Amino acid sequence: RYTLFPGEPRWPKDRRDLTYAFDPRNPLTEEVKGVFARAFGRWSDVTALNFTRSESFSTSDITIGFYTGDHGDGEPFDGVLGTLAHAFSPPSGKFHLDADENWVVSGDLDSFLSVTAAVDLESVAVHEIGHLLGLGHSSVEDSIMYPTITTGRRKVDLTNDDVEGIQYLY
Ligand code: TQI
Ligand code: ZN
Ligand code: ZN
């Protein structure tokens, strides 16, 4: 079953249109930006939420960046595997990814075979966006919000449990 953060924090009712921006210090390809757009789309498909990409990092609701090691928020990254990414509950909007991971862009199936400790970017993004929106971890093994993922595995489809959780909040 899904869980929520203590106090059930969520984006307020008058904030159904949320913007997101990428840290300009990380130049990302359109292919990588498209992975995030698809991950947001999986949540906007089942809620009244809309996510729009913004070019203004300082004024966006959700900010996305790739960092290594200590990056100033007291939760340092740890190199390959271990912590892959973290996101904070609403209304923080901070979504950080460990730049030391061997991120794989979904659909690139062959890369799973050749990359050691490959981590599927879209799978992690869908999970972290769940946290950004207010979902904690779920006990349902197939759910996006289950707290374990297998390296090299792609898990991007919301389950009924994820949908029930997000539709309770929004
Ligand atoms: N990062 C943890 C996570 O996102 C950070 C974390 C631990 C956390 N406990 C939390 C975040 C409670 C919010 C609330 O779960 S992680 C997975 C999963 C991680 C883990 O790097 O370990 C995914 C990132 F669920 F598969 F284990 C993405 Cl998909
Ligand atoms: Zn961080
Ligand atoms: Zn998590």
Tell me what the structure shows:
- By secondary structure, the protein is an alpha/beta fold.
- The protein has one domain (17-169): 3-Layer(aba) Sandwich (Collagenase (Catalytic Domain)).
- It is 26% helix and 18% strand.
- It contains four helices and seven strands; from the N terminus they run βαβββββαβαα.
- The chain has helices at 30-44, 109-114, 121-133, 160-169; strands at 17-22, 50-53, 62-67, 85-87, 94-98, 102-104, 118-120.
- The strands form two sheets. The chain has a five-stranded mixed β-sheet, covered by helices on one side. A two-stranded parallel ribbon has the order 6-7.
- A hairpin with a 6-residue loop joins strand 4 (85-87) and strand 5.
- The longest helix is centred in the first third of the chain and has 15 residues, at 30-44.
- The chain is globular, with a radius of gyration of 15 Å.
- The mean pLDDT is 93.
- One zinc ion (ZN) is lined by residues 127, 131, 137, 147.
- Residues 127, 131, 137, 147 line the site of one zinc ion.
CATH architecture: 3-Layer(aba) Sandwich
Our estimate of the beta-strand percent is 15-25%
**DSSP strand tally:** 7
N-to-C SSE string, H for helix and E for strand: EHEEEEEHEHH
Largest sheet: 5 strands, mixed
Helix proportion of residues, in percent?
Answer: 25-40%
Explain the layout of strands and helices.
Layout: E1 17-22, H1 30-44, E2 50-53, E3 62-67, E4 85-87, E5 94-98, E6 102-104, H2 109-114, E7 118-120, H3 121-133, H4 160-169
Parallel strand pairs: 1-2, 1-3, 3-5, 6-7
Antiparallel strand pairs: 4-5
The structure holds ligand TQI and zinc ion (ZN) (2 copies).
